[in-house]
Amino acid sequence: MHKHELDYFFYPDGIAVIGASNSQGKAGYQVLKNLITLGYEGRVYPVNPKEDTIKGLSCYASIKDISDKIELAIITVPAQFVNGIVEEIVQRGDIKAIIVVSAGFSETKTEEGVTMEKALVEMTTKAGIRVFGPNCTGVINTANALNTTIEPTVEQVKGGVSVFSQSGGMAGSILLFAEIQPRPLGFAKWAHVGNMCDVDALDVLRYYGTDEETKIVVIYMEGFNEGRKLMEVTQEITSHKPVIILKVGRTELGSKAAFSHTGTLAGSDAIYDAAFHKVGITRVNDLFEMIDTTKAMSMMPLPKGNKICILSEAGGPGTMAMDEFGKYAQAQLAHISPEGQKELKEKMPSMSLICQPDGYLDISAAAMESHHCEALEIVLAESDVDGVILISVPPTFLPPEDLAKALIPVIKKSSKPILTCLLAGKWVAQARKMMEAEGIPTFDTPEQAVRALVNMIDRGRFLQKSAAKRGDE
Amino acid sequence: MDKALLEHESKQLLRYFQILVLAFEFCQTEEEAVRAASSMGFPVVLKIVSPKIIHKSEAGGVKLNIRNEEELNRAYAEMMASARNYDAQPEISGVLVSPFMTGAKELIVDSVEDPQFDLVVMVELGGIFAEIFRDVSFGITFLDMEGAIEMLENLKTYPILEGTRGQQGLPVGEIASLDRQCFSRLISEQPILELDLNPVFCFPDQVLVADARVLLK
């Protein structure tokens, strides 16, 4: 198999951990631990002249002593020793990828740090070796359970979401957030490239774009110095995969923090907005919206249009959904036909408010699971309805699990997206878990469900527009 | 070093690019201004032309709705006096005489050099509310006609351009074409660093650049 340059990071044949250690406070311990305790089955070689064995693996004094093939080297030693090790790596000739975990390079903004990093890249470029970092945590790949990071370990659920982050903290937090969903949101690949002395955001993006395991690209970004290139690269991806970006620097204060953190100018936020819109990037505002949108897009089909029915079992949460929905001019309430309205009035509890206004249903707290299902089936059959927001606050006489059990088959056979919000907390935790296990996304609040659906509407529109454009040519 | 073209030079350049500009006559004396105004027909607008005066209104360098020769003489004298007030050596190159037009919707079409996206064309709502509403839309990458129209559609005030509440709409296509022209000029005409067309008068039947500033590299 021909390997892509970045495949050596995600699918290495032989890994050396230089600076591997038995002392738990060191990165070299954590990296090795994550590598060998999370199910990775490839060959791993700890390197440290001061240790005999680590975690049951015999330790090598130098990488020169390893006679087996190594493709990826992970360096965790202090900065001043890194370049010496890189020299040895270059001499070996078999290593194609290096992850430099060590900090103390250009990010310190000192002359010494900058010079060392420059020397490092010079050596590796000449040798045709690609580098992640310095000052990074590397990669995770759920396909082979590879984890080179020191991030808190999360349950590695396989899925189609691939994560890229300019911040290690955010990269880890995205996974932690994904993990606490009723059913942990599965992911494919994950990358943190730190100082980006060699492999940069664009390289990773391009890689995710062509990676077959990756169905959705999720990015945390503080700023990017080559805006136009970012647009060119993303444009190639958004035509077949969603690219969801949490871009900070919305305010002046945020921009200042971003500059001091990653040294990139946050740039005019309005220009980013315009650029993202142009190339079909889904821009989200916070971690919640990022996870919600990713979850919705990975589990549900896109709506064919922008007409939505909001179906609630309770007036308050329904009103909150409507209030949020009203903020987005690109989304509209669907029209329910007179026949549909008649049927709903006949079948729903007498206190129900049907289509007041049109497209909004409050089927009242008297609604049992059968009412929920019938109402959902009726509106899904309406030609004007492109998607449904379904909200319920199951009362004591309607066990949430019963509701979930009844809803699952109805939702599963629909070709239209249904974003469900069961309120709230522990009361519905089991029900939500049941639904998500069946691939049905659930959301904490009505507003979160609405925002995710609006992002789906935008994405659907972008795809239709680009398809029409291609048709013109 | 950056070189700012004077208003009439900027407008000549735009004309050369086949961008429609509001009629103007560059005059170096008061007599020339009177002659220009008479042949153009009153009412006219008088504007100062000086490399040192960029914000003309602040320096008393714009006189609107001049209805006859007498008013023109008075406006001319006042303008020269306030220019000297503004700057002891105002380096006045002359004045610009243009027809005075009312009833236009004003837009601003300009460009910025963004640190991340390079050249970006902006279209904004102009006029007295511009500062308050800050209704701006950006055009990035190669701007085709479709992109230019989308750029206008992204303005909050787009319904005004389209025509709302019985008001006649504006030639959106022509505005978009102006945006597109500016963008392609910025990209292709290497010496141009920045364009600032402010205001652009939009009438139901035509779009005219009323003031322009071009910065060369």
Helix content of chain A: 40-55%
Radius of gyration of chain A: 25 Å
How many β-strands of chain B, per DSSP? 11
Mean pLDDT of chain B: 86
List keywords for this structure.
A: 473 residues, alpha/beta, seven-stranded mixed β-sheet, six-stranded mixed β-sheet, 16 helices, 17% strand, B: 217 residues, alpha+beta, four-stranded antiparallel β-sheet, globular
Describe it:
- The complex is a heterodimer of chains A (473) and B (217).
- With 473 residues, chain A is of the alpha/beta class.
- Chain A contains 16 helices and 20 strands.
- Chain A has a seven-stranded mixed sheet with strand order 9-8-11-10-12-13-14, sandwiched between helices.
- In chain B, the strands form two sheets. In chain B, strands 1, 6, 7, 8, 9, 10 and 11 form a seven-stranded antiparallel sheet that branches. A four-stranded antiparallel sheet of chain B has the order 2-5-3-4, with helices on one face.
- The radius of gyration of chain B is 18 Å and the shape is globular.
- The model of chain B has no long low-confidence stretch (mean pLDDT 86).
- Chain A binds chain B through residues 223-228, 231, 265, 267-268, 270-271, 274-275, 277-278, 469, and chain B through 112, 114-118, 120, 136-141, 146-147, 151, 154.
